[in-house]
Amino acid sequence: MTTMSFLEHLEELRRRLIYCAVAMVICMMIAWPLVPTVQRFITRPLMEPSAIQKWSYSAQSWVMQKFPDLAQKLGVDPAPPKVEQPHRLNYMAPLEPFFVQMKISLITGLAMAFPFILYQIWRFCAPALYENERRYFYYFLPIGTIMFVLGDLFFLQLIWPLIISFSLRYESEFLYSMLNLTQFVNFCLRLLLLFGLIFQLPLVLVILGRMGLVTREFLVRQRRMALLLSAVVAAFHADILTMIAIAIPIYGMYEISILAVRLFGSPARRAEPREEEETAPPPAETPPGPPPAA
Prior knowledge:
globular; mainly alpha; single chain
């Protein structure tokens, strides 16, 4: 641990913020040509069936092929996944597509610069930490980045197509969807950030367990509270399907966190100093004095 004055702290903070801002600008410039690709990726559920629909059709077809009698009794008759009619996003403001493109490039640039920003936060906080506290960051930086990406991929591959396909089922001869560009992208980006943070929960709890701040027994006792908080976080979204699609992964990651804390979250045992037995020196023998006078 090193000591710094208040002005030195401000100067160090200013330097790290400048580094982060420069990295953000560079990553935004890199991400700008990728915006159409990102936009096509997040609008893919508007033009093709979801992965869950494809898996359901494959599973039912396998049952019919391997067990035709059982499939006939159960009434399994798989229909090919319906190819969604192409839907276009609409916009109403003159410069709305440009600002949406700016927002997508900003979020994409933030995702690209995320490891560098974490590293700058670490460099700012490192002088105030002890050596045994610094080592936890070495696990957090790479594993946290990987978990954030996994959370976003989980959302884009499974949850997002499910939400969009459920929304499009309400179309009929009386109802036609006119999805707004800004609202569609904002909704997707907000959930992307949320799922990236949800997947950080096991790592954060493992680090707290290694530091001795939480235990597996404590987490097991708080299961009801975790279920309640999962429902509260999911309740900020209006439709019931999105609430369920958010609440289940949050609580699922909490259960994974309990298992991770059990396997990897035991606090590091500190070597107890050995107590050296000090043997008292034997009392010095007093030399015999002169005989007492008669």
